[in-house]
Write a structure and sequence with these properties.
This protein is of the alpha/beta class. Helix content is 42%, strand content 11%. It has a six-stranded parallel beta sheet with strand order 3-2-1-4-5-6, with helices on both faces. Helix 6 links the parallel strand 2 and strand 3.
Length: 218
């Protein structure tokens, strides 16, 4: 038996578009431009660090109190998008892979930087697949630190070397590698070149490949 750890944003659901809209409105409100390219750089980055980066790009300094207010505003706006999410927003073939892994009695965990992970999994009706959920509320060191994935392995009672991580962010691949887990990038191979394997999305991943992850010695 192996442990399969899924990142959430960009792997299970495409929430980047909602983060983008919420960050863009916030940035524009305080007179900072915010582009899609900049949004790319916030993938896998925690809420606090994301706001710090935006303020840095806009060369703006604000008080700690204002910082807290802006964080809350952004999250409330983001949550208003999440509110309307449903199963139709699960990325292609994610459910197929989850079903297959659970039919093969594999352990499944979530390893996400998001503090909204539990709510989102619930919205898209996937909570039942997960033996462990580790999210932004439980970790102190953000990816590329391996903490989130090591914590997930521990909660599944699995050794790190028996775990496989699915990730769309460079920092997430680095975290999986640092944890000595097998890293599978979901996205662009030229960006995720540090991963052991890369697929554009789960539709490109064969069940044969998953069988090899389950049973590498066969
Ligand atoms: C994921 C996303 C990031 C997001 C972070 C925190 O890693 O890729 O874009 O900033 O989670 O999400 P949260 O829901 O806690 O604001
Ligand atoms: Mg991600």
């Amino acid at each position: 038996m192996n442990g399969f750890i899924f990142d959430l944003d960009g792997v299970i659901v495409d929430t980047a578009k909602y983060h983008y809209q919420a960050w863009k409105q916030l940035a524009n409100n305080i007179g900072i431009e915010f582009s899609l390219e900049q949004n790319e750089q916030l993938k896998g980055v925690s809420r606090v660090e994301s706001l710090k980066k935006i303020l840095h790009w806009g060369q703006k300094t604000i008080s700690d109190d204002e910082f807290t207010v802006l964080m809350t505003e952004k999250n409330n706006h983001y949550l208003s998008f999440i509110e309307t999410m449903g199963e139709d927003e699960i990325l292609p073939d994610v459910s197929k892979v989850l079903n297959y892994l659970s039919s093969k009695n594999q352990k499944i965990a979530l390893g996400s930087a998001s503090k909204n992970a539990v709510g989102i999994l619930d919205k898209v009706n996937l909570t039942r697949f997960f033996d462990a959920i580790v999210d932004g509320n439980q970790v102190t060191h953000a990816k590329p630190d391996p903490e989130v994935f090591l914590n997930a392995a521990e909660q599944m009672h699995m050794q790190p070397e028996d775990c496989i991580v699915f990730e769309d962010a460079v920092a997430g691949i680095q975290a999986a590698n640092a944890a000595k887990m097998v890293s599978v990038g979901i996205g662009d191979a030229s960006i995720l070149h540090e991963a052991d394997y890369v697929f554009k999305d789960f539709t490109e991943m064969s069940l044969d490949f998953i069988d090899k992850l389950i049973n590498p010695k066969k």
